[in-house]
Design brief:
Radius of gyration: 14 Å
Number of domains: 1
Protein name: Cellular retinoic acid-binding protein 1
Strand order of the largest sheet: 4-3-2-1-10-9-8-7-6-5
GO molecular function: retinal binding; retinol binding
InterPro entries: Calycin (IPR012674), Fatty_acid-bd (IPR000463), ILBP (IPR031259), Lipocln_cytosolic_FA-bd_dom (IPR000566)
Function: Cytosolic CRABPs may regulate the access of retinoic acid to the nuclear retinoic acid receptors.
CATH topology: Lipocalin
CATH architecture: Beta Barrel
Number of helices: 2
Structural class: mainly beta
CATH class: Mainly Beta
Pfam family, one: Lipocalin
Length: 132
Amino acid sequence: MTFNGTWKVDRSENYEKFMEQMGVNVVKRKLAAHDNLKITIEQTGDKFHVKESSNFRNIEIDFTLGVTFEYSLADGTELSGAWALEGDVLKGTFTRKDNGKALTTTRVIQGDEMIQSYNYDGVDAKRIFKRG
């Protein structure tokens, strides 16, 4: 599939403001801005295996499109939600367990980049990844 491969973060747009809106403290925001995040995606049909590795943690996530699962962000925020494939866009809709607010994430491939966009409580951000 299009998303298969290893992706290394190249740059971010409005990511620190997004993390601030999410309630991430200033120290963690500064560290996360330079986390060297690498995502490896393996898709087989509607099943995904995702490895995330950064300066702070290494985790592996398995999910099936349309099936709700639990997930913890690097700062410990607990989420519940699911991913769906809408055309060429992988869209994740998650709900924070602590306050019930929605977090939406999309992944789209444009050329040699994967653009991961976030929306939380009126704040948008992007992280742009290069194949690597």
